[in-house]
Automatic annotation (TrEMBL):
It is a multi-pass membrane protein. This is Protein p34. The lineage of its organism: Bacteria, Pseudomonadati, Pseudomonadota, Alphaproteobacteria, Hyphomicrobiales. The chain crosses the membrane at residues 41-59, 75-93, 113-131, 152-170, 176-194. GO terms for cellular component: plasma membrane. It is found in: Cell membrane. Keywords: Cell membrane, Membrane, Transmembrane, Transmembrane helix, Transport. Its main location: membrane. Gene3D superfamilies: Cation efflux protein transmembrane domain, Cation efflux protein, cytoplasmic domain. Signal peptide: none annotated. It comes from Pelagibacterium luteolum. Residues 11-202 form the Cation efflux protein transmembrane domain. Belongs to the cation diffusion facilitator (CDF) transporter (TC 2.A.4) family.
Length: 295
């Protein structure tokens, strides 16, 4: 079992544990804000399951139906997570509205806040692991899940602080106001996640520093060629796609041009092991005198 898959399974277990704790806290206090926090944890569980399915699908090897692989499946998972977050926000707004109409005093606030903070500490620990490992393993689904959990952590801390104010002021309507703020926070989180994931589905280029590294690698390993132009990149999960035109002397043999291509591919793969590279070899009369000049 891969490390990514183990982390995805761990996310489901953590989500179930945290959900149980938050529902317990909401039940003993009757707090609308804590119930809203628990609703967000239901979304956490749903998105963890979606991430697991996407990760398993993305790990499948390329076949005749998907010759470029299933790597983009993780981005669909991230989009689904964003949709779930928006749905959770709408449910929370409904709970907040009910709280404004008929505010009720909070029972056992100390115990409820304590239980909620234990759940929050677990979430904080796990989200740091997901974000760090998601970046390390180039897993968009894990990283998206980690960022989503971080919004849950921030929301839970805000709810706890707010509940202290509710008890101190004796104003139960503040409980509903806190629930509404939680909803706004996760709605913003869902929007950011959706916009980032849709961008990846649209074949966005790799970050500028990675593109510069690829261009430098081409230049350093293309000895014997003249230039490389029209360098294009896109990323799908952990796979980086690179294609460009390589201009060589018109008198160069196919075998010698192929040696240069092999050298460039090896150089790029040393930095991006999962890279898929396409090189179009052209004679010198196709030179644009732009792009990547050979060192």
């Amino acid at each position: 079992m891969s490390q990514v898959l183990k982390l995805a399974l761990g996310s489901i277990a953590i989500a179930i544990l945290v959900l149980a704790l938050k529902l317990w806290a909401a039940q003993i206090t009757g707090s609308v804000a804590l119930l809203s926090d628990a609703l967000e944890s239901i979304v956490n569980l749903a998105t963890a399951i979606a991430a697991l399915i996407a990760i398993r699908l993305a790990a499948r090897p390329a076949d005749h139906r998907m010759p470029y692989g299933y790597h983009k499946a993780e981005y669909f998972s991230a989009v689904i997570e964003g949709v779930f977050i928006v749905v959770a926000a709408l449910l929370i707004f409904h709970q907040a509205y009910q709280g404004f109409i008929a505010p009720e005093p909070i029972d056992a606030p100390v115990e409820g806040i304590a239980i909620s903070m234990v759940a929050t500490a677990i979430n904080a620990f796990w989200c740091m692991i997901l974000i760090r490992q998601g970046r390390k393993l180039l897993s968009p689904a894990l990283e998206a899940d980690g960022h989503h959990l971080w919004t849950d952590v921030v929301s839970s801390i805000g709810v706890a602080v707010g509940l202290v104010l509710v008890v101190a002021t004796g104003q139960p309507v503040l409980d509903a106001a806190l629930a509404a703020l939680v909803g706004l926070n996760i709605l913003w989180s869902g929007w950011k996640l959706l916009s980032r994931s849709v961008g990846q589905l649209m074949d966005v280029a790799v970050p500028s520093e990675q593109l510069e590294s690829i261009r430098e690698t081409i230049s350093a390993n293309a000895g014997g060629a003249i230039e490389a132009h029209d360098v294009r990149t896109r990323q799908a999960g952990k796979v980086v796609f690179v294609d460009f035109h390589l201009v060589v002397p018109g008198t160069m043999t196919v075998e010698d041009a192929h040696v240069i291509c092999d050298r460039i591919e090896a150089g790029i793969k040393s930095n991006f092991p999962e890279a898929m590279i396409t090189i179009h070899v052209e004679p010198d009369d196709k030179a644009k005198h732009a792009g990547v000049l050979v060192l």
